[in-house]
Amino acid sequence: xxxxxxxxxxxxxxxxxxxxxxxxxxxxxxxxxxxxxxxxxxxxxxxxxxxxxxxxxxxxxxxxxxxxxxxxxxxxxxxxxxxxxxxxxxxxxxxxxxxxxxxxxxxxxxxxxxxxxxxxxxxxxxxxxxxxxxxxxxxxxxxxxxxxxxxxxxxxxxxx
Length: 160
Hints:
160 residues, Methane Monooxygenase Hydroxylase, Chain G, domain 1, single chain, 0% strand, mainly alpha, 5 helices, 76% helix
């Protein structure tokens, strides 16, 4: 197999990761603005990209295995080591682009995680303020029981 097919697959995969990064950026803005409906739509879009990445990744693994003739691990680094000439340069550029986009995606996802955590904490505090919990959950006998209740007789006389 030629490296051209592998390069095409890697470019597709790279493009999907870049699109996923764009979605992560949009998610940050939506989280900042607390737009729940838009967040639901964006999560669906994100899920579509994740599914597409899984499919292309499976394709990448098989094409990488073909390219390497099953000799080594199916990594991009192994492909770069095997390649020669302009093919090696293209693979190295793709590797560098992947490294950049993965680092950006990781950082953006960490930020989104923190924003989500803060939003949940704020919601929890707001709910606790609106609906405070009872501090005493044990059974207590009323202290000021009316005297009339003690002297009241039943309709049925148990001595009869």
